[in-house]
Amino acid sequence: MLYQSGYRHIINHLKYQEEIKQTEDSPPTIFFVWNYLEWGGVQIYFLGLMRSVVQKYRVKVILPNGSDGKILQYLEENNIEYDFFGGKIDFSKTETVWRRIKRRLNDFQANLSLAAHLSKYDLRDSIVQIDVAPWAGFLLLFYLTLKTNVFVTFHTALPQISIGKQILWKIKFATLTAFRRFHLAASNLDVKKSLRPFVSDSQYQQIEIVYSSVNIGEIEQALKENKQRGDIARRYDFPADKTWVCNVAQFIERKGCWVFLEAIATLQKQRSDLFFFWLGTAPLNEETSRKVERHNLNESFRFLSADEIGASRHDLLTLWKAADLFVLPSFQEGLPVALIEAMALGKACIASRVNAIPEAVKHLETGILVDAGDSAELASAIGKLADDKSLQKKLGENAQRLVLENFEEKVTGQTMLRLYESV
Q1: Are the C-beta atoms of residues 346 and 397 closer than 8 Å to each other?
Q2: Does 205 share its domain with 224?
Q3: Per-residue pLDDT for 415 more than 60?
Q4: Cα separation of 44 and 50, whole Å?
Q5: CA separation, residue 169 to residues 37, 135, 375 (Å)
Q6: Over the stretch 135-194, which tens digit does the pLDDT of each residue have?
Q7: Which of 38, 36, 33, 37 is nearest to 49 (CA)?
Q8: Which of 419, 423, 17 is nearest to 207 (CA)?
């Protein structure tokens, strides 16, 4: 018995030493984390970062149970590991005090569940890149910062808030940034400027801009695709003989969905040579579908969800490439991945004059800027650009050149990789 016990002890010790060696030899892990079901530009931005760091780090995504199958497919196509936690943040509108209380309790529980899930991993030599705002997920970020290096990249400028909230947010920022393991980054200049009131001068100077970017390989593959427009029109039941005007975004008010439909309704009364489509991430719910129907757009407008577009990103880019114009009438934005991808595809773009959009869209040089919420101005811009093929060509070529020279994924990925390696 003593011999057997000693033998087992030696074997277990050898196994333990082997596990330590494997841990020492394996690259550190970067966890990419978000706590909500909706997906879009942030996740595409994260995918670009993952592709840039995967040669030097192990990459793992942590996301909520019930996440959309399309984003899981994108992760699998890029050979990215992922794991689920229970709970999710509630982004639905609240109209009563009781509803706001319930939502905050739900959000607290979701973040608590996420913290518990991450605690199962050895975070000591890891990095957590997380899409959680310090004012909404302060306790979660505080907990994670005690464990490891945490990166938060801001994509949209901070909103105008009351003086009371400003004081509270400053306290939260000051607490988190007091830790050397808490790091801030911005995906555009506009959002960096909006952080200025909440951080010290030295911390502000340390905030790096890691721009939204495009995967040049994906873009080049789409541009080389020789599918005829007629074939694409038949696949999606689109009218091949009209000018195609598209949007790629979540179908939500912040993205200007109703302004877009109002502009279509205006143009529909004036002409019949335009066809509009919106490429979204998820199907419309019943309430939104009824609201769309009330605009009486008939055959002038179609909405396609990610599953209806096709099985891969290439299907999306191929359809997108076939469009004549790209329109993004948002009320609030960062520097949207969808916009710079449209520009990379050589599309003539019309976008709102808000936040970071003018960092890429220079009026009448690389696109057309309109005031957010002005459906009449948007309709006029669409009509004029649809009639001016030479301007379409000029704007599309200039936009494509700007993006390919300044927003390539490998370049922006190297910036983030340098930040990860500095900790």
Answers
A1: yes
A2: no
A3: yes
A4: 10
A5: 25, 6, 35
A6: 999 999 999 999 999 999 999 999 899 999 999 999 999 999 999 999 999 999 999 999
A7: 33
A8: 419
Same domain, 62 and 19: yes
Are 250 and 184 in the same domain? no
pLDDT tens digit sequence for 39-81: 988 999 999 999 999 999 999 999 999 999 999 999 999 999 9
CA distances 124 to 57, 371, 417, 421, Å, are 14, 48, 19, 15
Overall domain count for the chain: 2
Predicted pLDDT of residue 5? 46
Could you tell me the residue range of the domain that residue 124 belongs to? 2-213+409-421
Per-residue pLDDT band for 26 (boundaries 50, 70, 90) equals confident
> Which tokens hold the place of 88?
């999710």
Rounded distance between C-alpha atoms, residue 83 and residue 195, angstroms: 32
In 3D space, the residue among 327, 317, 309 whose CA is nearest the CA of residue 215 turns out to be 317
Tokens 């050589």 found at: 346
Q: Please say whether the beta carbons of 358 and 342 come within 8 A.
A: no
Give the whole-angstrom CA distance, residue 232 versus residue 173.
49
- For the chain, give the number of residues: 423
CA distance 170 to 186: 18
Residue with tokens 């279509």: 264
Tokens of 18: 């082997």
Q: What is the maximum alpha-carbon separation in the chain?
A: 94
Instruction: Tell me if 241 sits within 8 A of 270, measured CB to CB.
Output: no
Element at 383 (helix H, strand E): helix 375-387
Do the Cβ atoms of 319 and 296 come closer than 8 Å? no
Task: Identify whether the C-beta of residue 232 lies closer than 8 Å to the C-beta of residue 318.
Answer: yes
pLDDT interval class at 411 (50, 70, 90):
confident
Domain identity same for 183 and 315: no
Kindly list the distances between the CA atom of residue 7 and the CA atoms of 17, 19, 326, 417, in Å, as whole numbers in the listed order: 15, 18, 70, 46
Distance CA 210, CA 255 (A): 23
Give residue 25's pLDDT band: very low, low, confident or very high (50, 70, 90).
Answer: low
